[in-house]
Design brief:
Leucine Aminopeptidase, subunit E, domain 1, six-stranded mixed β-sheet, nine-stranded mixed β-sheet, Aminopeptidase, alpha/beta, 15 helices
């Protein structure tokens, strides 16, 4: 979809539809809506009087533009109550409007920040334009690589035009559109990686994709293969990889956008390209979805891509321990003991608790950078899905400032996190009689026991763990999150990085 910004009058744009925002409960119309209502002989007031469309969030009503407006249709998008509206309601409105336009077979849309920023408080034109762009680009994402026969009825929006009345406003909107596009396309880049089937997204293919992305964006990329991983002593990570014929890869990306000598932020993404459960085999029902177990790694790549393209002034490292978790004659067994990179021994209770094993060595490797922060992101526990459902990411960590910053960033982009306790008491559940620890403490407190396990590998560095098991895959379409991979976490971490620079 082409994204353009111009100076002009939005009501004079010859497009298929103009998109405008309306607040709930009879709130005052913004000037753009007032003018449309006047030119259409009160058509918007008549729609509201019918009481079907009230301006609630995610509502979209389509009306004829009439002869005085050059567009064919006007899309009325609900923004909710004015006192509660924010950037998220704008993303949702643009997402729903874009989907509705695609359903109708429309090709060109026009809008203006003025219709969404009215009564929005201190949000800038750039912020609003970025949110509008994110909502549209994220909503229109489709994964169709494996549809061999092209659907002749496929519909695509060709252009979204942002029209501003003043030149200075157009300049700011242009910055916002550019930013929103980079962020949204980085999310969609990660979604693509996750949506690929496991036979088309092996550790080797993932490593190749990372290398290509890094080259395009001037990011240093190093790929370690099995012999190098063995020399590092990553016995926990290799213990997961033992059962698969696909060779493991340890992917390292380094973006130096900050000052030389500044401590880097290290992001570690769980990258299990397929998780069968290993010897502790998962039930067959739903196993095909386990291609999404590399969501953390895909998100990490998306964050590095966005950080480089946005030129965020930070030093950033991404670490992806990539492997499959498969059952075979060479696979690790329950009862085996693995030797991790930091010297701790781990008794395997369940081979299906494999993500924390791969992350353990990657987290300890992260300490080599003497980082400012370590953040890991992983589809780690089913327990997190039970605890928080599909709308919140579980957050645990050892640093209050980092947790607070992560929470604030999540609220801004509506990828919200919920803190859970990281108490030493939970370590009692993973104590082993024959090793330093077990890789599973059973069903009770599974989110916390997994996190306390990981905490033993970050030394004393500030660290946050994000468990995205409940939010990484979407089974029901939302305003701008299609069914399939969500890549929730990209926008959260990008916002955290941006906030760090201010």
């Amino acid at each position: 979809m082409k994204l353009t910004v111009k100076k002009g009058a939005v009501l004079q744009e010859k497009v298929d539809a103009i998109v405008v925002g309306i607040h709930e409960n009879g709130a005052e119309f913004n000037p753009v809506v007032q003018e449309i209502n006047r030119l259409s002989g009160g058509a918007i007031r008549k729609v509201l009087e019918r009481k079907g469309f009230t301006g609630r969030p995610e509502q979209v009503e389509v009306i004829s533009a009439g002869v005085a407006i050059k567009a064919t249709y006007v899309f009325l998008c609900g923004l909710g109550k004015a006192e509660k509206a924010g950037l998220e309601q704008i993303r949702q409105a643009m997402g729903r409007a874009s989907l509705r336009a695609r359903e109708m077979g429309l090709k060109t849309l026009a809008t203006t920040t003025a219709t969404f920023s009215y009564q929005l408080g201190d949000a800038t034109i750039k912020d609003v334009a970025s949110a509008m762009t994110e909502g549209a680009v994220l909503a229109l994402y489709q994964f169709s690589k494996y549809k061999v026969k092209e659907d002749t009825n496929s519909r695509y929006i060709e252009e979204l035009r942002v029209v501003e009345g003043e030149r200075d406003a157009a300049r700011e909107a242009e910055k916002g559109v550019a930013q929103g596009r980079i962020i949204a396309e980085s999310v969609n880049f990660a979604r693509d990686l996750i949506n690929h089937p496991a036979n088309e997204m092996t550790p080797t293919i993932l490593a190749g994709t990372a290398k290509t992305m890094a080259k395009v964006n001037k990011i240093r990329c190093t790929i370690l293969s099995r012999p190098q991983i063995e020399r590092l002593g990553m016995g926990a990570f290799l213990g997961v990889a033992k059962g698969s014929q696909e060779p493991p890869k340890f992917i390292i990306l380094e973006y130096n956008g900050g000052k030389k000598g500044d401590k880097p932020i290290v992001i570690v993404g769980k990258s299990i390209t397929f998780d069968s459960g290993g010897i502790s085999l998962k039930p067959s029902e739903g196993m095909g979805k386990m291609k999404y177990d590399m969501s953390g790694g895909a998100i990490t790549l998306g964050v590095l891509r966005a950080a480089s393209m946005l030129r965020i002034p930070v030093n950033l490292v991404g670490l992806l321990p990539a492997t499959e978790n498969m059952p075979s004659g060479t696979a690790s067994r329950p009862g085996d003991i693995l030797h991790s990179m930091n010297g701790r021994t781990i008794e395997i209770i369940s081979t299906d608790a494999e993500g924390r094993l791969a992350l353990a060595d990657a987290l300890f490797y992260a300490t080599r950078y003497k980082p400012k922060w370590i953040i890991d992101i992983a589809t780690l526990t089913g327990a997190c899905v039970i605890a928080l459902g599909n709308y919140a990411t579980g957050m645990l960590g050892n640093d209050r400032e980092l947790k607070e910053r992560t929470t604030e960033a999540g609220e801004k982009v509506w990828e919200r996190v919920w803190e859970m306790p990281l108490w030493d008491d939970y370590f009692e559940q993973i104590k082993s009689p024959i090793a330093d620890m077990k890789n599973s403490g059973g069903r009770e407190g599974g989110v916390m026991t997994a996190a306390i396990f990981l905490s033993k590998f970050v030394e004393d560095y500030p660290w946050v763990h994000l468990d995205i098991a409940g939010v990484a895959w979407n089974d029901k379409e939302r305003a701008y999150i299609p069914v399939g991979a969500s890549a929730i976490g990209v926008r959260l971490l990008v916002q955290l990085l941006v906030d760090t620079c201010h």
